[in-house]
Write a structure and sequence with these properties.
Layout: E1 32-40, E2 43-45, E3 50-58, E4 64-74, E5 85-94, E6 99-106, E7 113-114, E8 118-120, E9 123-130, E10 144-152, E11 156-157
Parallel strand pairs: 2-10
Antiparallel strand pairs: 1-3, 3-6, 4-5, 4-9, 7-8, 8-11, 9-10
């Protein structure tokens, strides 16, 4: 192998073409609704972790499980990065007609980019939360919420945090 960029080889680097069966693809026996995506803090110091909460509601008639997925998108980076990157997921059982509030941590190291070493960069990011990848085309409806946050500070090596 001569091309180590993985461009065109994994879902993270497909460019404009979506994979046939993206991560999380599948059908459910019920429907879910996502709401109240909250990121804290909205402006993050360069080495800090991001706290995330989202409410998942089972709006169908059957008890079921959902795989809640969080993806990160860099608005601008000094080096090539994936269109979005899976940073967390959790399988959650929710009774019919009930809801649950989920909490996640997105670690600073999950925002790091490779530029001869792992580096953290300031900038604007979008976090997606839902039952599938952002922009996924499926027959089963599933919501994907998004929220933006900023990272403030000076770029630095990850090991410097």
């Amino acid at each position: 192998i001569e091309n180590y960029t993985m461009e065109g080889w994994t879902y993270r680097y497909y460019g404009q073409e979506a994979p046939l069966y993206p991560f999380g693809y599948g059908l459910s026996y019920t429907t879910f609704r996502y709401r109240d995506l909250v990121l804290s803090p909205q402006v993050l110091p360069i080495c800090a972790n991001l706290s995330v909460s989202v409410v998942l509601e089972n709006t169908g008639l059957r008890d079921s499980e959902e795989v809640v997925q969080l993806y990160l998108h860099w608005e601008q980076s000094s080096v090539p990065v994936p269109r979005w990157q899976l940073v967390a997921f959790r399988r959650v059982a929710v009774l019919a007609g009930r809801e649950t509030k989920l909490f996640f941590q997105v670690l600073a190291e999950q925002r790091a980019v490779w530029a001869q070493d792992w580096r953290l960069e300031p900038g604007t990011f979008t976090l997606f939360a839902g039952g599938q990848q952002p922009g996924q085309k499926t027959r089963a409806p599933s919501e994907v919420l998004s929220a933006r946050f900023s990272v403030a500070g000076t770029a630095r090596p990850l090991r410097g945090c």
